[in-house]
Automatic annotation (TrEMBL):
Matches recorded under InterPro entries: AlphaKG_dependent_hydroxylases, TauD-like_sf, TauD/TfdA-like
Name used for this protein in its record: TauD/TfdA-like domain-containing protein
Molecular functions (GO terms): oxidoreductase activity
Phylogenetic classification of the source organism: Eukaryota, Fungi, Dikarya, Ascomycota, Pezizomycotina
The species this protein was found in: Sordaria macrospora
Gene3D superfamilies, alphabetized: Clavaminate synthase-like (3.60.130.10)
Short name of one Pfam family: TauD
Keywords of this entry: Oxidoreductase
Amino acid sequence: MLAELHRNHYTYQTTACKMSSVISGPVLAAAIAPIVGNNGFPFAAATNAEAPALPSGFPSELRSKLAWTGADFADEHKYILCLTETDLAEVKQAIAEYKSLDQDGYLVEPNTFQLPTLGSKLRALGQDVHFGKGFGVIRGLDCAGFSVEDLTLAYMGLQSYVAEQRGRQDKRGNMLVHIVADNSTKQAADHHRHSNKSITFHNEEAGDIVSWLTRSTAATGGKCIIASAYTIYNVLAATRPELIRTLARSDWPFSMPRFQCRPVIFYEDSKLIMNFGRAALLGNQAHPRPQHLPSLTTRQVEALDAIEAIAKASQMEIQTQAGDIHFINNLAVLHRREGFVNGEDPSTKRHLVRMRLRSTEHGWPIPKELTQEWDEAFQKKGVKHWHLEPMPAYYFPLRRQPN
């Protein structure tokens, strides 16, 4: 077996398996660490008879715009939609016209938030998030120039052009989740959404698209970091196909938001879907794993570590600014947060407002193992709360929600 690693492209060849794959972009040495054995040689089987096959129906390589590395987007204009003065004027006019309708803000949609020229740009962004690279950023809103109500209305109006369905984020019906540092209780201080520590790559439990409005940024740190699940798959399929088999098995014991054994990855309708979080599988300070639940196997932990290492080696960092609106394909792109330190001034305290979204027109088919979470978010009739400002931790069932 021969393995070669280059800075600008990674090629792995195995004479035993007669397999070759090329992954574009700078997949650095860190990506190899979890997927090779002693002496730097892969420890996959060495004969055709022993070589692990990919799960039935899974491709040897995903050729898609969703397979990228951070180096592909050194030019931020490739993923940031900068609002022009004309765009901003349209947003302000749309806010005024919507408020004249005397409707609740959560009912805003393109028909009632009309953007004559900006609308087509936002629809193109929605196409790109669903079927292109899987992420995008709107930049240019001046948070200080809007009231909280108008800023939230602008966020939801712009968002409605990308994906119009808005999902409940917990059983209490919270629609807006405020990501802010909160040490008022130990549970809050240790929780992903209220800690200031760095967190590992993950997906949200539900939602085709995860979106957030940045109302303010930290004094230092707090960057948004993303990685392509498609690139991770391609590296593993080329080097450790047995880990693809492990990830596709239905024996992963998720503890949250409900106990369920299911796969981490799915391949349906010619689309790869990855959905997981380490907290729900391994536990953490905010979510100690119940002792009566099964633990992960050594191979499962190895697969999670491989995902994390490859994601970090191919990741993309986004230096967020106040007023930015992020959209990330939650089915195909992983995300994590850099640790941060807040300042004393409110403008230097990190504050994101998160929503989970789905598009009626562009939404992907959801695997049956995930439909309960999607139905509870988008289909279930029940109370919906729209808190425009952060609320005390007891408003949110933090213990049952990993993110």
